[in-house]
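The records we work with from here on pair a chain with its fold. These numbers are not coordinates but entries in a learned vocabulary of local backbone shapes. To see the layout at work, look at the sequence and tokens printed below:
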Amino acid sequence: MIVQKLAMRKYALALIPLIGILAFWQIYKLYLGYEDLALFYMLQHRAEALAELAKQPNFNIYRHHFWLIPWQFKLFDYNPLPYYIVSVLTYIASGFMLYWFTRKLASPKSALVAAAVFMSGYFGLETIWWSAFNGHQTYLVIILLLASTGFLIEYAQKGKLPNYLVSLVLFALTVFLFQFRAFLLFFPPLITLGVFRRPVKKAIYEALPFIAIFALAIVKVAGSGVSNISHSSTLPILDGIKAVVGNIGASVVPLSIFLKEELAIPIYIVVGLAGIGLLAKQAKRSQAWAWVLGYLILTSAATAGSVFLGGSPILVYENSVRFITPIFLGIAIAIGLSYDHFGKQKYTASIICGFIVLNVI
């Protein structure tokens, strides 16, 4: 009842930046990360050795990944606070975009819950302490991803061609500007058309332009030598399944609940399996739940695959939060949808508020 009343008030959306500020108000204490400083040094010193380093294949994976940073460096120099402020503002903007997106799947109160959960900062930490590589760019990708998918849902539900074209343009823009995050973008349009668009044959035809654009981007990235698989050339299937399920579970358990690794991984896997089971049950009744289920499983799988192709072992609770954040995005939407379903239960609002508080602290 409290959330429902709040969602109907004009100032309800103020809750989104408020939670973001509560989560990250200590940014003024932070300095630049070591990779930020290394990049800034390269911007100031165009030495031949550094120029040669920048031509190496392994460096190409980052070339398109920090293209916004030189513009910021011209404005902010070595003053860390403005960089972090830009990151937090981008983070808050992604919360507003998530509210707009979730409104297409559920009620205003569910959208507010989803945005509030996402803003609680759980896996947003890397926005703060690793500005140059994984800060605001991660959330710019999420903003564009939500915008593209939101317009595609509008098209799938109403059949208006301009919505499809806007979605396709936003998808192409995001894929080519942020190729390091391209793996996050492949499945949402396919899931959207598969869930909301009928007949299936038409959905397949309409998915082809998205697949073609993604393929062009991947070919370009693959040609630059971004993969660095040194730990194994064989895909560890069992580890991959554990990571897909476990990272969904890890996104549900707040970081403030400290768990030892040997205990945490089994808990994350059990929580992930339980969550997938609950979503599968609801997906039979609702397209919105079916979309969230497909998004979580396929995004978690894409994350595990990208980690492996990048040369790292596939882990449960991969600590690079630029990978985990998109999974938590799906968890936030699922929690928002659950409020529509369980909102009349006595303790639902208290449990969700407690979850947000645990994330913030």
